[in-house]
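Q: What structure does this chain adopt?
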Amino acid sequence: MKIVIVGSGYVGLVTGACFSEVGIDVVCVDIDQKKIDNLNKGVIPIYEPGLEDMILRNMKKGRLNFTTSLADSIKDCEVLFIAVGTPPDEDGSADLKYVLAVARECGKNMNDYMLVVTKSTVPVGTSEKVRNALQDELNKRKVAIDFDVASNPEFLKEGAAIDDFLKPDRIVIGLESERAKDLMKSLYKPFTLNGHPVIFMDIVSAEMTKYAANSMLAAKISFMNDIANLCEIVGADINLVRKGIGSDSRIGNKFIYPGIGYGGSCFPKDVQALIKTASEYNYELRVLKAVEAVNKDQKMIIFNKIKSYFDGELEGRTIALWGLSFKPQTDDMREAPSLVIVKQLLEAGAKVKAYDPVAIKEAKHHFGDSIAYCEDQYETLIDADCLAILTEWPEFKFPNFKIVRKLLNNPAVFDGRNIYDKNEMRSNGFNYYCIGINTSKKVTSKAPALETILKD
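A:
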């Protein structure tokens, strides 16, 4: 079977690589000539564990190819996936111009039956718009060619996308014909043989499932952050509360970790888009509006804690940041809390030194030379007045606290991901501030000279 995937971003590349891994011939199409040239040279534009090796392996075997020509690619194509971006408009709605452009291009060039599948995250009703755009082009050509449309939303976690695709919790497919169903069954047979369930439904329900799933997860995050803030006020420990409620099978222990807000390419955009869709039908999604508001406020919490620690005076202070990506195992900084925190620190007159294992290159696109970028986590601490952890990368979880303590001008650590134990931090002489635990006692110290530290 030959399939075409239009869009070589995060979703398109993972989808193409994983389908080729199970023996399917895949052509990935993108209008960005530079990106395609780089991919053909083996240069992968995103960071995702395992993706580069998989792409290079399947390119070598001839099962995975990259091109800018959609017209040439759809010859003998049975299934075409639309995996282009759907960025949010100013009003929060998903911008479908790229999706519909692909549909029109298909209508201009197809010469035989084809199943066109939306893989991009799109609002309810998009597949009908795809159908109309494609049919309009066929009408202009005055040709009658059968085609089907379908919806096959992705459920990929950045940092674990390969496993999510190859070993999915579920495969959701919305379609309208038996012919389309047979094609999708054949395409996903390598996965269903391993027991991974396929859930067939109508197209509208499939489109809604994607938004509902991400919005539910976003709601869990905002709920826990709201509860964490209350815990600080009343003196409860959110880590204990989390364990207490997570043991309830109806709630579960996933997505109930407090922090500094969700980010990335999915949750913020999808929550906004679902709110916008509801408003178009004169319905108000009150819970999701609250989810969004809590998340917006939560991204300010670490900045506010730092500002309070220094009695509102951040002018001339140097703040060390560990982590810039919105989550570990990715270089994605879209809607990352770090974007808000760095902006606020700079506006308050502070200097920022930052380290991230993979997102430094991406960070430079956002911050330019307004902050200092460091080669390792300890370099950020030299002459810094405090440390803030913004991303829970594994290498940050067990640092040498003796070195951290000596390098910092002030023994202050602001843990935006609750990766440290409060008692251990206090025993190591730190003023430790996290999410959902009230800590107020301060100790003071002055770091020794760097030469002394290096001798230790």
